[in-house]
């Protein structure tokens, strides 16, 4: 089952052609890595896939819903899409646990239940001990784990992760990839931007972007390297 589908998507910022006609489908249970040089359009692709940005032309559908036509885009995003931003975007006035709880509370989950879910997913990413600290009191790696917990909470069916291993050492990066892979094996679709071949090896498929176009797409699945 296709979870997200981009059809001939372009995105222009004035004279800058960030994406120049990209088509990509990601199915439930599939982990697709997106690689490519700085400025090639990786973050733009993720933003469009998650409905955070609109294409200049072409279409994006999530679970069969055309994002250009959906009435409650914010609701669809909250319910279906988990996002790990390149710059994390944690809310500074909320603790780690509150950051993770927020999307669930916006979905109408009661505070007690949202907190239990948040603590469980923080434990899953190895950050339960910092649950009641504020982002500014966390190390880069701890912030990264909290941002990942926020994307994983609530069984989201599409997880978009922009360099989620950026501030992490390789052992921790491997743990994060293991979590994303597990979420995938439970049926989520995952799009992962990474510069590291080490992490791309966890993917089912690697898509290479250059100057806003997909220049190569390879199946990987190197079971032996895991
Ligand atoms: N809001 C914007 N206004 C103007 N140009 C933009 C904007 N956002 C992105 N771009 C341009 O679009 C192109 C693609 O940017 P994008 O952020 O998608 O690259 P990237 O592959 O994620 O790079 P990096 O690896 O550095 O994160 C770049 O040339 C960038 O300068
Ligand atoms: Mg980027």
UniProtKB/TrEMBL annotation:
Q: Which residues form the ABC transporter domain?
A: 4-222
One Pfam family of this chain: ABC_tran
Q: Which domain of life is it from?
A: Bacteria
Q: Which Gene3D superfamilies match?
A: P-loop containing nucleotide triphosphate hydrolases
One Gene Ontology term of the molecular function aspect: ATP hydrolysis activity
Report the GO terms under cellular component. membrane protein complex; plasma membrane
Keyword list, A-Z:
ATP-binding, Nucleotide-binding, Transport
Q: What is this protein called?
A: ABC transporter ATP-binding protein
What organism is listed for this UniProt entry? Nonomuraea zeae
Q: What is the lineage of its organism?
A: Bacteria, Bacillati, Actinomycetota, Actinomycetes, Streptosporangiales
């Amino acid at each position: 089952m296709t979870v997200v589908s981009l059809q001939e998507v372009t995105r222009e910022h004035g004279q800058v052609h960030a994406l120049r006609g990209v088509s990509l489908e990601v199915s439930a249970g599939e982990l697709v890595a997106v690689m490519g040089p700085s400025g090639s359009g990786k973050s733009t692709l993720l933003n469009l896939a998650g409905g955070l940005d609109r294409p200049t032309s072409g279409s994006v559908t999530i679970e069969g819903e055309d994002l250009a036509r959906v009435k409650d885009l914010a609701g669809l995003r909250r319910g279906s899409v988990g996002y790990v931003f390149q710059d994390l975007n944690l809310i500074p006035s909320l603790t780690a646990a509150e950051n993770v709880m927020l999307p669930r509370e916006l979905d109408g989950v009661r505070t007690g239940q949202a907190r239990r879910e948040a603590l469980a997913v923080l434990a899953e990413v190895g950050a339960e001990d910092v649950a009641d600290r504020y982002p500014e009191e966390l190390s880069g790696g701890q912030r990264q784990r909290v941002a990942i917990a926020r994307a994983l909470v609530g069984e989201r069916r599409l997880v978009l992760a922009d360099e989620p291993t950026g501030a992490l050492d390789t052992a921790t990066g491997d743990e994060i990839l293991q979590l994303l892979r597990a979420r995938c094996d439970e049926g989520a679709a995952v799009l992962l931007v990474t510069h590291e071949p080490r992490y791309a090896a966890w993917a089912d498929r690697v898509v290479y972007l250059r100057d806003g176009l997909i220049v190569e797409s390879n199946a990987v699945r190197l079971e032996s390297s895991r």
